[in-house]
Automatic annotation (TrEMBL), chains A, B:
<dbReference type="InterPro" id="IPR036390">
    <property type="entry name" value="WH_DNA-bd_sf"/>
</dbReference>
<comment type="similarity">
    <text>Belongs to the Nudix hydrolase family.</text>
</comment>
<dbReference type="InterPro" id="IPR000086">
    <property type="entry name" value="NUDIX_hydrolase_dom"/>
</dbReference>
<dbReference type="InterPro" id="IPR015797">
    <property type="entry name" value="NUDIX_hydrolase-like_dom_sf"/>
</dbReference>
<dbReference type="Pfam" id="PF00293">
    <property type="entry name" value="NUDIX"/>
</dbReference>
<keyword id="KW-0378">Hydrolase</keyword>
<dbReference type="GO" id="GO:0016787">
    <property type="term" value="F:hydrolase activity"/>
</dbReference>
<feature type="domain" description="Nudix hydrolase">
    <location>
        <begin position="16"/>
        <end position="151"/>
    </location>
</feature>
<dbReference type="InterPro" id="IPR054105">
    <property type="entry name" value="WHD_NrtR"/>
</dbReference>
<dbReference type="Pfam" id="PF21906">
    <property type="entry name" value="WHD_NrtR"/>
</dbReference>
<dbReference type="InterPro" id="IPR020476">
    <property type="entry name" value="Nudix_hydrolase"/>
</dbReference>
<dbReference type="InterPro" id="IPR036388">
    <property type="entry name" value="WH-like_DNA-bd_sf"/>
</dbReference>
<protein>
    <submittedName>
        <fullName>NUDIX hydrolase</fullName>
    </submittedName>
</protein>
<dbReference type="InterPro" id="IPR020084">
    <property type="entry name" value="NUDIX_hydrolase_CS"/>
</dbReference>
DNA sequence: TTATTTTAGTGTATAAATAACACTAAATCG
DNA sequence: CGATTTAGTGTTATTTATACACTAAAATAA
């Protein structure tokens, strides 16, 4: 118990579980939150859709494995990535004991280098409220947890910006919040809060549409470290 | 990539990392937040203090492993347990690739069945701001993260109650908040908020001390499911 | 060419939550 | 029996949230 780790030669004495890294990849497509799923071709759960993932290699960290997986599936580098939770129930995979470290990735709307475009692909984007349930393994549970984490972090982090392109309007940002929180927000209050937060940088650009043109903004990465960002929309949330 | 999991016989083709479960065990001792550490007896990090942990067995879930570990170290069952984070840097253990799933446990002040009492033990409680740093492996990092999680969850969960005995005074509860948050709270505002939250149940008991005796309360587990518990002391926190 | 529709953006009155701090209460201590 | 100690309540100013009405600038329709 004290010396809980065996010496090197001891490792072989233990039966080891397999470790995978699964990445719940979100993106905004047509103003709707989507998640990337892959279709399984073999037993178990043949034909079911699953969260993309793969075995960890001994020479890469968990996050490196997640980034590799992400790039393999989407071709995208340089995205927001965050560890979600580790799922380790004994029977989650019928073949072998598998422990899965789940990550969340947010891919920007304009970074669509993705090979998941055509209808017949075995890699596809699904709107988060229309996934082909049940998913393989315990992936319904993982997805549900990822969404819940997304919702709760939206309010006190700048996470929403990770889903937007470089330039965006304030109402587009509001739309993301509404998408993820699943509720309407007041326009005036949104404008006020987001401006007070001081995390937006005005650009000279406008976008024209049907009504009045809209100003485009960019996310200020260089935020003056002094005051912290808090952006709370509701009080009664938690994970 | 699509079929990211090999069939059963394939598992042996991969080199597998070892998986441990480490449990950061907190308790309140003499009104101060303490963490349980064990002293290593062998290389690597011989003599250094470490967060208790052990290898996962194939027939137990992650949480079961954490509970087993916890009971081995403290003799305590029935405690608050929550998964913290999974640490998997390649070089965190010099012997072998080890991925560690860290948990937080909160042990109630009155449940001191612990064999960590005497000074010469290799299992000991340390005040969280006086741990014998550096700890073994990356355990300084794990402990720091555990504390930060504890702080942020304190405000919107009933987590603090897990550290208190069955009966406690409101000022004792306030003291826990101050311990963990590391700042003084206003007495009047604390009384008001905790009472409005409706999570305390008054008991007929009092405790006598030097000044005016104090009323004892108990935590209401049977909270009427309707209104959610929010108990925020500061706005500018996150993890 | 003017009225209507559409989307963008601002302002304001009220309600609610928070923070600061002064006060009262019940016991022991000297 | 007054001072001290710890417990607990009350009051007010300030900040923040909420609801909702208003103005603005473009396209489109009459």
């Amino acid at each position: 118990m004290q010396d809980e780790r065996p010496a090197l030669y001891d490792v072989s004495k233990y039966q080891l579980p397999a470790v995978t890294v699964d990445v719940v990849i979100f993106s905004l497509i047509n103003r709707t939150l989507h998640v990337l799923l892959v279709q399984r071709k073999r037993w178990p759960f043949e034909g079911r859709w699953a969260i993309p993932g793969g075995f960890i290699r001994l020479d890469e960290s968990l996050e490196e494995a997640a980034r590799r997986e992400l790039e393999e599936e989407t071709g995208v580098r340089d995205v927001y990535l965050e560890q979600l939770y580790t799922f380790g129930d004994v029977q989650r995979d019928p073949r072998h004991r598998v422990i899965s470290v789940a990550y969340i990735a947010l891919v920007r709307a304009d970074a669509q280098t993705i090979r998941a475009s055509d209808e017949n692909s075995d890699v596809r984007w699904f709107p988060v409220d229309h996934v082909p349930a049940p998913l393989a393994f315990d992936h319904d549970q993982i997805l549900a947890y990822a969404l819940s984490r997304l919702r709760s972090k939206l309010e006190y982090t700048t996470l929403a910006f990770q889903l937007l392109p470089e330039l965006f309007s304030i109402l587009e940002l509001k739309h993301i919040y509404e998408q993820i929180l699943g509720e309407k927000l007041d326009k005036g209050n949104f404008y006020r809060k987001i401006k007070e937060a001081g995390i937006l940088e005005e650009t000279p650009y406008m976008r024209e549409g049907r009504g009045r043109p809209t100003r485009l903004w960019r996310f200020r990465r260089d935020r003056p470290g002094d005051k912290q960002f808090v952006f709370r929309w509701r009080e009664d949330r938690r994970e």
